[in-house]
Amino acid sequence: MLNPKIEDAFNGQLNAELYSSYLYLSMSAYFESQNLAGMANWMRVQAQEELGHAMKFFDFINERGGRVTLTQLEAPKTQWAYPLDAFQDAYEHECKVTGLINGLVDLAIGEKDHAANTFLQWFVTEQVEEESSVQTVVDKLKMIGDSGGAVFMLDGELGQRTLPPAAE
Ligand code: FEO
Q: Hey, which of 33, 80, 89, 127 would disulfide with 98, CB 3.0 to 4.6 Å?
């Protein structure tokens, strides 16, 4: 039986992960509109990873005898001024998600739900990776500045990203 407070909070995080997927898909659409296919690919893979995160919460809630309730998703932003603007938004979003995960860990500890706490530790580790991978792109875009040739090179590099088998 899942503690109702954990059930509510995990359903909230399920919505947040789905929103993350929606946001990154919107960024992918923006990059497609800019003819930056590599960045569009990077964001599309990110959107798929977020869907995987959402499904982890979906499965955990069900396995613990809770009830998954899906709620309305906020409409994501659809336009950015330039590539760095979008990746900076993505970085800030990941920092926000890290805060949400930390809040869930605090709740799980407070409620003495050890299984929930153990489950969340995967996300604690994942958020370190999530922030770092976006930060790397932000740093590169800052270095590149207005150099069109370098943006083209980075776009090619980001086009190589594929979904890890575990996230499929
Ligand atoms: Fe699901 Fe990017 O955190």
A: 127
